[in-house]
Amino acid sequence: MTAISPTLRLEPAALVGAVVERVEAPGRFAGLFATARPSGSTELLAVVATDGRLDVLQAHLAPGVSAYPALTPRVPGAYWYEREIHDLFGLVPEGHPRLDPLVLPLAHDAPRPRPGAGQPGPGLMSPDESPLPGLVSGEGLFTIPYGPVRSGVFESVEYLVETPGEDIANLRVRVHHKHRGIEGRFEGRSTADGVLVAERVEGVASVAHAIAYCQAVEGLAGVVVPAPAQLVRVVHAELERVANHLESVIRHTEASGQAVAYARLTLHKERVLRLHGFLCGHRFGRGVVVPGGVANGARLEPDEIGSALDKLARDVDDDLRLLMATPSFLDRLRGTGRLSGDVAASRGALGPVGRGSGLGEDVRRSRPYGAYSLLGFEPAEARSGGDALARQNVRLDEIRTSLELARRAVAELGGQERGPWRVPVVPPDGLGVGWAEAPQGEVLYLVESTGRRLARVKPRSASFHNLALLASALRGDVFTDFAFVEASFGVSIAGVAG
Amino acid sequence: MPWVTRGLREGIVTTRYPARPDGYGEGWMGTVGVVGEPEAGSPGELEQLCPTGAISARGGQVRLDRGRCILCRRCVDARPDLFCFDSSVEVASMRRSGLVVPPVDQTDAGLALARADLARRVRCLRRSVHVRHVDAGSDGSDEWEVAALTNPVYDVHRLGIFISASPRHADVLLVTGAGTAGMLGPLRRTLEAMPDPKVVVAAGTDAASGGILAGSYASHGGIGDLVPVDVWVPGSPPSPFSLLHGLLLAVGLISEAEG
User: Fold this and answer.
1) Nearest to B212 among A126, A196, A269 (CB)
2) Where are the beta strands (DSSP E) in A37-187?
3) Cα(A473)–Cα(A126) distance, rounded to whole angstroms?
4) Which range (A121-135, A346-360, A473-487) has the least confidence?
5) At what angle do helices A227-255 and A302-323 cross, to 10 degrees?
6) Do A203 and B141 touch (CB under 8 A)?
7) Are B213 and A182 an interchain contact pair (Cβ–Cβ within 8 Å)?
8) CA geometry: angle at B139 spanning B133 and B142, to 5°?
C-alpha cells in the first residue's frame, strides 16, 4: 500500500495545470471527486495514476465558492466526472463544454445532496425528467429513446440514439433513473459496516468493491492482512471475474441467436455462482471480504474446490473453443464497436475495454495488491483490434487465467487452511485510497474516516469511467450492432448511477 | 453439428422443482431463521445487531423481518443461540407481514382473503404466464438472478412462464430494486400499459424495504408504496429458486403454507 503519494494540496486555479502535467508525464487520469464538509466548504480530489503509483491532488473551495476552472477542456477523461460533481454538489466547472445532467437532473436552484456534509438529506429528490436537446443536426435526423425500461431483463438505463435511420450518428446515455444515492449510505457507519454498502454499489462486482474498500481502510490503519485471507480473497475475486466475463459472452450469444451456446454458457455461469455459494454461503461472494481479512475460510476442502475448478475450466474451455469457431457468431463481433487506441489512451479506458484497444494496464500487476504477486500473476495480453471481438478475446483469455489463479490460490491455501483469517482494524482519522481490478476494470475507493466512523466514501467503478466511451465506440455502427457493443463493454449501470 | 451434441452429452440438468423438492438450497445459506428465545441481553442490544433494522425483540419474542434482512450474518455470528441460517428457498409470501419469522400471531383471514382475491385474478393465467421485469434501482445482481430463470437449470419455460419484452402482453410485473425516485414514473407507466388482470411481484429485500438504501435521498423504502404488490420475495439478491417460488405463488400454481 505504499503506492499512494501523499496528498498534494493546491489552489483550485492550479489544479488543471497539475493534473495535465501528471497526465503528460505520462499518466492516466483516474478520476475527479468532491467531498462536502459540514462547514459548507468543498474539497476537490483529482486522482492520476502514473507508473505504479497514484497521485492524489486536493483543492479546497471555501464556503460560498460555487465554481472552479474545468478540467475537461484539457483532460477529456474528466467529462463525466465534472457533470456528476455538478449534479451532486451544484459546483460549476467553468469552461466545461456541455454540462448536461448525468446522475441526478435537478432544477438549477434546487438543493443538492452534497455527500460528506453530514447533514440529513433534504428529503426525497425527484429528478427532472425533461428531455435533452439533440446534439447532431441535419436533414432527417431524429432521436430514438431506448429505455429506461428495455426489452429483456436489463438494468434501467436510457440510451438516446441520434440517427438518420440506420447509422448511429451519436449516442447519449441517461443513467439517473437508477441513481440510488448510495454514496450517502456509507456516512456515519462504522468501517466494519461500510463494506455492506460497498458490496451493493455494483452488485455483480461485490467482491472487487469489498476488496477496494477494505484495502482503503486497511491502508489508512496500516495493517497487514494475513496471507491465508489474501488467498481467499483471490479465489472469490477470480470466480467473480469468470462469472462476469461469461455474462458478457452470454449476451453476445443471445444477441446473435446462438441458442445452444447460450444454454451452455448460462449453465456454466450458474455453476460458477453455485460454486461461489458453496464456498461462502452467498452466490455473489458477499460477506467474505471484511476490513482486516476475510470473515472465514472457505467452507469446502481445498481438494474439493480444486477439482470443481478443474472441471469448470475444462467444460468452459471446450465450449468457448467451439464458439470461437462459429462463423455466424464471429461475424457479428468482428469490426463492431471499434474504440480506437488513441481515444482509449486519451480517456484512460479501463479493464477489458482498455485491453481490447491496446492498453496493457491491469492493476493486479501495475499496482499489485493482495496475493497476486505471490501467485505469479501475468495479465492477459492486450489486443489492438479495438472492436467487440478484441474485447471478447481479452475476456476469454482472462477466464482461463482467472480459473488458473483461483486454482493456484487454493493450492497455496492447502497448507494454511486454519487461518488466521483477520486482524483487528482501527483506522485513524484521515483519507485512505484503495483499488482492485474488478471484472469491469479498476475500482477506486476514497475513504475518509473521522472518530472511527465513515465521514465520506467515494466509490469509482470502472463502469462509470468506461460507459462514457460507449458513444465513441458506436459511432458509425448501425442499430443491430448496438446489443453487441453494449455487451462487449460489460458495464453495470448500478455502478455508474451511484 | 457440433453444438447439438454438446447439449446431448451433458444430459438433463434441469431441476424437478416444484414437482419434487430440489436439494440445492441445503448447500448454502439461503435465508436467516430464528431458533430460540432470548434469555440474556436487552432487546435494544439484539436490535442493534442488525444494520438494516430487521430484528425486533420486544415482548420477549425475537422476530426477524426477512424483507429487511440483507443476509450479512451479523446476527448469526453474534448470537448463534438465537439466529441460524435456514436452507429454505420457499420464502416468498403474499403478505408483507408474511416475511417476518416466526410469524406474527394473526388470524388467517387476511391470508385467505389475499389468496382468494389473487386466485380470482390469475385463474386464466396458469398455463401461460408472461413476466415483464422492471429494474427500479437494483444493485445489478438481482437482474442476474432473474435472468438465470431461463437458464437450463431453472428453465421456467417448462412451467409455461416466459419473460416478456413488452408490457402489452405481460401478466406479471416483476420489480427489483428499492424504488428510486427516477424510476417511479417509468415503473407506473409500465404497470399501466399492462392489460388486466395483472399481478405485481416485489423481488428482493431492496424491493421489499429498500434494504441498506432505506433513508436515501434518492430511493423510496421499497416499492410497496409505489405499486400494489401481490407477492413479496426476500433475499439480497433473491435466489432463482425463491424467485420461482414467488412466481408460482403469484399465478396460483402452488399455495402458501399456512403460517
Assistant:
1) A196
2) 42-50, 53-61, 67-69, 92-94, 142-146, 158-163, 170-174
3) 32
4) A121-135
5) 30
6) yes
7) yes
8) 40
Tell the burial category of B84 from Cβ atoms under 10 Å away from its Cβ (0-12, 13-18, 19+).
middle
Record: contact A203-B140, CB cut-off 8 A: yes
Q: Do A284 and B143 touch (CB under 8 A)?
A: no
Rounded Cα distance between B41 and B83, Å, is 14
* Closest approach of A429 to chain B, Cα-based (Å): 23
Chain B contact for A247 (CB, 8 A cutoff)? yes
Question: Quick one: pLDDT band at residue A122, thresholds 50, 70, 90?
Answer: low
Per-residue HEC secondary structure of A23-35 comes to HCCCCEEEEEEEE
- Give the type of residue at A480: T
* Separation CA B246–CA B239 (nearest Å): 11
Least confident of A25-34, A108-117, A446-455, B249-258: B249-258
Among A7, A3, A93, A76, smallest CA distance to A46 is for: A7
Residues of B in contact with A495 (CB under 8 A): 140
Q: Does B177 sit within 8 Å of A178, measured CB to CB?
A: yes
Which residues does chain B have within 8 Å of residue A247's beta carbon, measured at their own beta carbons?
A: 144
Q: How far is CA A306 from CA A198, A295, A473, in A?
A: 29, 21, 39
Percent helix, strand and coil across chain B, each to the nearest 5:
35, 15, 45
- Using CB atoms within 10 Å of the CB of residue B72, give its burial: 0 to 12 exposed, 13 to 18 middle, 19+ buried: buried
Instruction: Report, as an integer, the average pLDDT of A446-456.
Output: 95
Residue A282 touches partner B, C-beta closer than 8 Å = yes
Residue B158 CB: number of other CB atoms within 10 A? 10
* B190 to chain A: closest CA residue: A149
A residues 150-179 closer than 8 Å to B (CB): 151-156, 176-179
User: What was the pLDDT predicted at B243?
Assistant: 96
**Which of B139, B157, B242 best tests the A interface by mutation, with the highest count of A CBs <10 A?**
B139
Residue of A nearest to B239 (CA): A283
CB interface of A with B, residues 169-228, below 8 Å: 176-182, 184-185, 189, 193, 196-197, 200-204, 206
Interval A294-333: pLDDT, tens: 998 777 788 899 999 999 999 999 999 999 999 999 999 9
pLDDT at B259: 44
Mean pLDDT of A161-165: 90
Average pLDDT score over chain A: 93
Eight-state DSSP code of residue B60: G
How far is it, in rounded angstroms, from Cα A43 to Cα A58?
A: 7
Using a CB-CB cut-off of 8 Å, the residues of chain B touching A152 are 133, 163, 165
Residue A162 or A120, more confident: A162
Q: What's residue B13's pLDDT?
A: 92
Element (H, E) at B135: strand B129-135
Inter-chain residue contact B216 with A180, CB threshold 8 Å? yes
Q: Decide the pairing of beta strands A289-290 and A293-294.
A: antiparallel
User: Cβ contact (<8 Å) for B163 and A153?
Assistant: yes
Q: How close does chain A come to B221, measured CA to CA in Å?
A: 11
Do residues A498 and A482 make contact, with C-beta atoms less than 8 angstroms apart? no
Task: Note the pLDDT of residue A2.
Answer: 53
Residues in a beta bridge with A190: A453
Low-confidence spans in chain B with pLDDT less than 50: 259
ipTM of the complex model: 0.95
Question: Could you tell me which chain B residue has the CA closest to the CA of A276?
Answer: B28
What's the angle, vertex CA A237, arms to CA A232 and CA A239, rounded to 5? Answer: 100
CB contact under 8 A, B135 and A178: yes
Q: Does A421 touch chain B (CB under 8 A)?
A: no
Run of H or E residues at B54: none
